[in-house]
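Q: Here's a chain of 171 amino acids. Please give me its 3D structure as tokens.
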Amino acid sequence: MAPTSPSDPMPFRPLRSALIVDDHPLYCDALAMTLRAIAGIEAVETADRLDLALKRLDSAAPPDLVVLDLNLPDVDGLDGLIRLRQAAGDVPVLVVSSLAENRVIRACLAAGAAGFVPKHAKRDVFRAALEQIARGQRFLPEGYDAAPDARPGPRDEAIGRLALLTRRAAR
């Protein structure tokens, strides 16, 4: 089961392989080079649509990390993250998106993301995110306001429930 709050620890996992799910080829190439250079991730695969990423997860050994852009041609909103989390099992999913608003980050965490990195972030931010995720911790970007006194709204609760569905129920 995916952690339900930003402070819940995730199991430690060395990061040797990654699947990048993003529809911008140049960004995928740059991110793959970054993952290799700063984290020593040796095997990096890419998928430009969610359906290809889901097929990849069904057909081979899972990667150690999935990096997901929220904006893909074949998915709307958090649906891709929720479906990917179901297919990925215990593999952490790091969201990398240009949509870096607090409400988006909060929704990603509620849906089971291992962390969130804005697409405009520098290499050091990616390094910190990967180090934290490898240690079993969630990564939150600088400036993120979790609003600790704010109660989850009905939408946040619904996202959390959807994230807990079994893989079969999510299809």
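Q: Can you summarize the key feature?
A: The radius of gyration is 15 Å.
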